[in-house]
Design goal:
Length: 247
């Protein structure tokens, strides 16, 4: 019975997300005609669309800050990835819009497509040219004073229960090249509420707890020791992950 209820809840969640998307789509489509001018408006719409889709089925978010953050400055938000709820979790954290860097497959999703055609940055890792263009676009965003969000693990792993897997280096090299601080973010328990896309275990109402660690300045790092920055961020996030998910 519990398994059935979790399966039903997952369907309610996706129906809620799609309903909210349909309600806001005319306004979103209008703003999408000029994404450069309406960047902030599209970002704010995305935030409230994703949050309302969660709220309607009893999924809420709670954030703790290790220290206060000046969100007027650009950052690279670096978060672990265990659930499709992670996207909503990141929009909840930041009071200002930002661009996601994500896999090109999201262009095929009817909900995420419009965002990856406008304010977000799709990456096809199988194509070196696509990766180069995405890297350049991401750098342009940072130079414009906009923040980026990335899941450095690159995917949601198939292993359950999940852990923190090794990072890809792109975000850290961008941060160093542009002298942009990295904000490590640990989304502690989204996987317990809705693991991956919920297809296997379903979902249930609950509160997603998020820990935002102190920003890490990158000015003391260079291309030669970028791996040290990557390891430092990884170990800091891993320590918190283990602490919050120990059995």
């Amino acid at each position: 019975m519990i398994r059935l209820l979790k399966k039903l809840h997952r369907h309610f969640y996706f129906a809620s997300v799609f309903l909210v998307f349909c309600l806001f789509f005319p306004l979103l489509w209008f703003y999408a005609k000029n994404p450069e001018k309406n960047y902030n408006k599209i970002g704010i719409l995305r935030k409230w669309m994703s949050l309302l889709g969660s709220y309607f089925v009893g999924i809420f978010y709670s954030v703790k800050l290790e220290e206060e953050i000046d969100w007027t400055k650009p950052f690279i938000l670096c978060a672990n990835h265990t659930s499709i709820l992670d996207i909503t979790a990141l929009t909840y954290i930041s009071p200002v819009p930002f661009s996601f860097i994500g896999k090109a497959e999201l262009l095929k999703n009817p909900v995420t497509r419009i965002f990856f055609k406008t304010i977000d940055i799709p990456v096809d890792r199988k194509s070196r040219m696509s990766s180069f263009r995405s890297f350049k676009k991401a750098n342009d965003r940072l130079q414009e004073g906009k923040s980026l969000a990335i899941f450095p693990e690159g995917k949601i792993d198939d292993v359950y229960p999940p852990t923190l897997h090794e990072f890809k280096s792109g975000a850290f090299r961008m941060a160093i090249d542009n002298n942009i601080p990295i904000i490590p973010i640990v989304i502690e328990n989204a996987w317990k509420i809705l693991w991956d896309d919920g297809r296997r275990l379903g979902s249930h109402p609950g509160i997603v707890h998020i820990q935002v660690l102190a920003p890490i300045n990158t000015e003391q790092y260079s291309e030669q020791n970028a791996e040290k920055l990557e390891d430092y961020v990884y170990n800091k996030m891993l320590s918190h992950w283990i602490l919050q998910n120990k059995s």
